[in-house]
């Protein structure tokens, strides 16, 4: 399809198509832009009506307030901690299993694969899991409740599995001749060769941890609040009172402004990180999508 | 340690010992699966009991009284259950009808953009909402649809309405809010797989079509669409199978819900949460959850066999 003359139909198509994509981009990005400009508008001024393109009365009081708020800082700390520790641990744990089942000679391989597949289609559901975590394992109110129950995910394991299968066996065999065991091979050879897929799974896990609030609600016992849970409470307090924009205190901050600013603070890190990891996860999804 | 020992894969202690290092990697995960996946599955037996939380953790499961299918009988006579079941199916099907074709359309049209830079930019932007939490999306909806929000403001300024519409407390607005917010959040992500399928089409097919005089639409209709048909069918099976297990929907509905629109936002998941966690009726809620899982598996098998019969494509 080299350079060729375009017909009128082609030109009309291209114009309309570009227009369509332009509208899609605007509709996708405007909510973020809208939240950002609103959060930089003076809270009292915002009561007069929404801002559309630019803050009417620029102000950073919302941010000053947010970054002095103990509860938010605490929630931010827990969220960052669970995101980093949780995704690093989950990636390692899941990769260990995926590497194991990618070795055809592993005893019990078929059983382990079947066990993992079953978990993708059937689970005990909310209540038995809740009882397991709160009654049997006594993890409620413990930071580990964010890490341990989320260590493994069968979908992610199979995406990694397809990747590990593609690594030539010769590499591993030569390492064995040199006296390396499977653990050393896994850490020193397989993991460094698999950075794209590890980045993909780390991103999935990281995003999941970053956005999670339901487990904090279920198991946090009021001690472990994450940023999104803080936002959930802010939203729900707004629904509880008919008047959404009520003064919180004498600080001149409104509940709407707190929500806006929390939304920006909660969302900003992800929108910064994901474009850099994009090339990895698109590749990762495609690997995962291929049937063996 | 020659590989002939491993090839035979005979299960004896000698072979297991030879594989001890890889077992150290794999077995913790197997143990984890037993605890976090399989124990809760065993826990499903309380759907047939009247779980007594005061008996203590283990005794509660073993010694609570058997009640047969009483919990299920109660479930099927509860009008709130039927409401929740209906809403679950209704919103899933609506999402499918709107979201699925849109993802295909977006993938096809994106592929027709000649400028590589622009194409990649649009694609990158389209994924972004997928990574954003439902809390953000619902928070945004609360802000733009409020009485003094941007939507009412525009409608008022254009004199289409003369007093604000209370979108958030009107049940009739729940379906469009649910479907549009879901479309916004997931279209780009859902399109990835179609974009990948289109990229894999043999370019000579397009060239041959051009030689035969096919225009833009003819190429889309006779080359692109038939080429991605298997992908479309597999994903359709997945989506139909997922009608009962739409996990993201819990967050969306739970956050959107308020007293005035409760009936319209109740789905199986929110119903289970309320009955089980809020009201601590563990056995009854487990029965509801079990019903949902069974229905999901039945749907999967059914969708798969229909597809196998009609098109020869299937998941397994």
Structural class of chain A: mainly alpha
Task: Indicate the low-confidence ranges of chain A by residue numbers.
Answer: 242-246
Q: Calculate the mean pLDDT score of chain B and round it.
A: 89
Radius of gyration of chain A: 25 Å
Q: Taking Cα atoms only, what radius of gyration of chain B do you get, to the nearest Å? A: 26 Å
By DSSP (H or I, 4+ residues per run), the number of helices of chain A equals: 14
Structural class of chain B: mainly alpha
* Amino- and carboxy-terminal Cα gap of chain A: 32 Å
What number is the mean pLDDT of chain A? 87
Please state the overall shape of chain B, judged from the principal axes of the Cα atoms: globular
Which strand-content bin applies to the residues of chain B?
A: under 5%
Report on the biggest sheet of chain B. 2 strands, antiparallel
Structure write-up:
The complex is a heterodimer of chains A (292) and B (316). Chain A has helices at 8-39, 43-46, 61-66, 70-102, 109-121, 126-136, 144-147, 154-165, 169-177, 182-193, 195-211, 214-219, 227-240, 255-289. Helix content of chain A is 71%, strand content 0%. Chain A is mostly helical and 292 residues long. Chain B has 316 residues and is mainly alpha-helical. Chain B is built from 16 helices and 2 strands. Chain B has a two-stranded antiparallel sheet. The longest helix of chain B is centred in the N-terminal third of the chain and has 33 residues, at 79-111. The radius of gyration of chain B is 26 Å and the shape is globular. The two termini of chain B are 37 Å apart. Chains A and B meet through helix 1, helix 4, helix 5, helix 6 and helix 10 of A and helix 1, helix 3, helix 4, helix 6 and helix 7 of B.
């Amino acid at each position: 399809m080299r350079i060729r003359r375009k017909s009128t139909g082609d030109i009309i198509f291209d114009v309309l198509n570009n227009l369509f994509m332009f509208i899609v981009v605007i509709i996708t990005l405007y909510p973020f832009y809208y939240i950002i400009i609103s959060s930089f508008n003076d809270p009292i001024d915002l009561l007069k009506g929404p801002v559309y393109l630019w803050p009417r009365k620029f102000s950073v009081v919302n941010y000053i307030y947010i970054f002095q708020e103990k509860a938010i800082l605490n929630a931010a700390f827990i969220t960052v901690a669970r995101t980093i520790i949780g995704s690093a641990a989950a990636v390692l744990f899941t990769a260990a299993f995926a590497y194991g089942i990618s070795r055809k000679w592993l005893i019990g391989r078929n059983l382990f694969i079947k066990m993992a597949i079953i978990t993708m289609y059937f689970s005990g559901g909310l209540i038995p899991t809740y009882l397991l975590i709160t009654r049997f394992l006594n993890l409620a109110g413990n930071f580990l409740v964010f890490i341990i129950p989320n260590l493994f995910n069968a979908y992610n394991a199979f995406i990694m599995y397809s990747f590990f299968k593609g690594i030539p066996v010769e590499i591993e065999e030569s390492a064995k001749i040199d006296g390396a065991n499977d653990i050393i091979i896994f850490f020193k050879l397989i993991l460094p060769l698999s950075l794209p897929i590890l980045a993909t799974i780390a991103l999935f896990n990281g995003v999941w941890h970053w956005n999670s609030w339901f487990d904090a609600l279920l198991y946090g016992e009021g001690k472990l609040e994450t940023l999104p849970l803080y936002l959930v409470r802010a939203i729900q307090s707004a629904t509880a009172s008919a008047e959404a924009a009520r003064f919180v205190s004498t600080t001149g901050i409104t509940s709407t402004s707190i929500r806006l600013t929390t939304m920006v603070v909660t969302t900003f890190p992800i929108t910064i990180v994901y474009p850099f990891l994009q090339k990895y996860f698109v590749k990762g999804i495609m690997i995962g999508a291929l049937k063996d | 340690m020659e590989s002939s020992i491993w090839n035979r894969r005979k299960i004896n202690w000698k072979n297991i010992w030879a594989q001890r290092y890889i077992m150290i990697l794999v077995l913790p995960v197997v143990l984890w699966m037993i605890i976090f996946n399989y124990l809760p599955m065993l826990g499903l037996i309380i759907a047939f009991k009247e779980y007594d939380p005061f008996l203590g953790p283990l005794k509660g499961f073993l010694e609570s009284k058997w009640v047969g299918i009483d919990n299920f009988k109660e479930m099927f006579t509860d009008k709130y259950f039927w409401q929740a079941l209906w809403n679950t199916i209704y919103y899933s099907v609506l999402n499918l009808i709107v979201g699925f074709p849109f993802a295909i359309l977006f993938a096809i049209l994106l592929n027709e953009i000649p400028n590589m830079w622009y194409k990649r930019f649009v694609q990158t932007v389209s994924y972004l909402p997928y990574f954003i939490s439902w809390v953000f999306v619902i928070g945004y909806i609360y802000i733009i649809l409020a009485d003094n929000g941007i939507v009412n403001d525009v409608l008022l300024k254009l004199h289409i309405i003369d007093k604000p519409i209370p979108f958030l407390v009107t049940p009739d607005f729940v379906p469009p809010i649910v479907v549009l917010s879901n479309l916004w959040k997931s279209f780009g992500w859902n399109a990835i797989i179609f974009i990948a399928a289109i990229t894999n089409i043999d370019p000579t097919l397009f060239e041959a079509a051009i030689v035969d005089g096919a225009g833009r639409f003819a190429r889309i209709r006779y080359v692109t669409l038939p080429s991605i048909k298997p992908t479309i069918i597999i994903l359709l099976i997945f989506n139909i199978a997922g009608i009962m297990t739409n996990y993201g929907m819990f967050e969306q509905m739970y956050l959107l819900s308020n007293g005035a629109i409760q009936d319209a936002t109740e789905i199986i998941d929110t119903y289970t949460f309320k009955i089980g966690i809020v009201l601590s009726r563990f056995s009854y809620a487990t029965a509801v959850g079990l019903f949902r899982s069974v229905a999901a598996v039945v749907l999967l098998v059914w969708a798969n066999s229909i597809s196998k019969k009609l098109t020869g494509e299937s998941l397994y």
